[in-house]
Amino acid sequence: MSADPFHLNRPVHLALRDVFFEKAVACIKTLPAHKLPAEQRKTAEQALYLLREARHQADAANLSDKTSTQSRLFMDFMDTVTDDTLAITRMLRRQIAVDTADNPLDRFLSSADTGAKMSGHFRRCAAHILKGLMNILQLAEKPCRDLQRTSLAKMTVADKVRYEKAYKHFEKLADREADKAVEEIITTVRTSGSIR
User: Fold this and answer.
1) Closest CA to 99 of 123, 113, 119
2) Prediction pTM value
């Protein structure tokens, strides 16, 4: 047993990091296929939830003394990907808000067409950020695989078993958890009128 108390659950945290990150990337890659802003927003919100969970698990795994420099650098990478995904969700939320009849922006500005003009602007901004994000994710494929392989290679046999068990278990649950979280976000936005 390791003398490092934070190392005990490291294999589980790494499995969760990997599952949530892989699922988030899969969601992001489907964004261009969605034509309706509401569909894009839901998928972006799912990806954002999964990225935040992956980041949280990576942070927990990095409390161990066994954390590599590459694992620490992965955190900065995660911040970039999460921030870009958040920016996309914000742009899509804004687009949806100004696309509604009698939208608050037009009402506040006493304008009949500002919302329609801004809708295109928000859509273009989201598409531009997504293009950059897709490029970053493509460049990250090899470093992410290498990080996962290196992490597994440094584990004991027992830790590898724990990693695999956690990975398989949470791989089944991750999509459902993301769907549930997004429904809560969308419901909150609908009822409060706030787009956070």
Assistant:
1) 119
2) 0.88
